Description:
Keywords: ATP-binding, Disulfide bond, Glycoprotein, Membrane, Nucleotide-binding, Signal, Transmembrane, Transmembrane helix
Distance between the termini: 100 Å
GO molecular function: ATP binding; protein kinase activity
Strand order of the largest sheet: 20-19-27-23-28-25-26-24
Structural class: alpha+beta
Largest sheet: 8 strands, mixed
Amino acid sequence: MGIRVQSGFFFLHVLVLFFLSFNMHLSIGVDTIFPGQSISGNQTITSQDERFELGFFKPNNSQNYYIGIWYKKVPVHTVVWVANRYKPLTDPFSSKLELSKNGNLVLQNQSKIQVWSTSIISRTLNSTFALTKKQQIYSSWSSYDDPAPGPFLLELDPNGTRQYFVMWNGDKHWTCGIWAGRVSIFGPDMLDDNYNNMTYVSNEEENYFTYSVTKPSILSRFVMDSSGQLRQLTWLEDSQQWDLIWSRPQQQCEIYALCGEYGGCNQFIVHTCKCLQGFEPRFPAEWSSGNHSHGCVRTTPLQCRKGGKDGFRLIPNIRLPANALSLTVRSSKECEAACLENCTCTAYTFDGECSIWLENLLNIQYLSFGDNLGKDLHLRVAAVELVVYRSRTKRRINGAIVGAAAGVATLTIILGFIIWKCRRRQFSSAMKPTEDLLVLYKYSDLRKATKNFSEKLGEGGFGSVFKGTLPNSAEIAVKKLKCHGQGEKQFRTEVSTIGTIHHINLIRLGVLP
């Protein structure tokens, strides 16, 4: 799209604004170009104060040449206007820019074919933007080093609403807002008396916006870059670089179609763009290089037109895509059914009202939790995608449960073994001094010998003594502790002492293992 301003207006608009308003005169060295004269090769036209220069230039990483205007004294080559954006040249020395006798600028290539004349589409905003009978349009570059017109255009609203729109392929991408007196058309936060003096003029004949810097020594420029972002930059002599003082859209995710179709934009992570679940980059190499404009494609095609089944995957807390179609239904189920019945429906949402999308989704933006703009989107996918996802999720959950259970069981066994070893070592250590002097008895044998501990002979501080008879008719006394661990130290001392006693009329002392 784009209505171009024709010859007479161009000569007045470019030459007057760029030259006269900056006290310029056309010169090649010390000469002046007149109608019928031309420039070629490395010849240039400079302003009287040598602030601006016009001539042939070649962008970085390019073999093409263009006619342009740039800042002469700024060491970082900064182009503010380009003539032949659609038709670059290959040889500036056999091409020429001529000021014709009728006042038009004409550019001819090496074959003497006219490739450009007095039309202007620029990415850098001049000091006056007029909307008269012809519409003035400013377009972005295709890339940082390619002046060819990009997909973004900046233009005044032809409906006379006193605002600029950034357009993307014919769609409104971003608006600066309606002019409100002294408030800047690019937003109140940009109004800075240290830099800008802004005016908007509207009458029956024309509408236009003007700006100027408050200090002539300040170099300030507005640029619309290849992503569609408007920027105001000021040159810093100390650091010898351009300083960004204002930009819109400010957040990267506000840029239209930044992540392409079915790409989600998340400004809270390092890699801003990510394909939605069930999608993959259309061009992986391009995606990896940081160019996400071609977006993502489905890993599994929808099955609606093939007689198969589709379903919906929930994407929570996002800024909803544009171009929704509203339906009158009573519930979320009815909204879902309406989308399923239409094979072109790609998503739906229900928040008291039903909205569906009948095209590929653009501008999906993840929001922070608590953002009141966040909505839930139900994205249409092939049913098999949901089955695979649920199956994988179930396997992961089951695997986690089994793994956790096995881990707990293993840990329990290990701890039990460690405790058993410690107790056994403690018991063995305590019994070692006497173990060679003692006789070991089984508990069952002692219970049988004492007739289940039925005949008590006496009772001490930490146990009872029972009478018993061994199978060889020898009578014994069996001391039984009241509870495990009670008086263990005293008991072991007693055992150690008695165990060393040998008498013809005494049976050798024994213990339970």
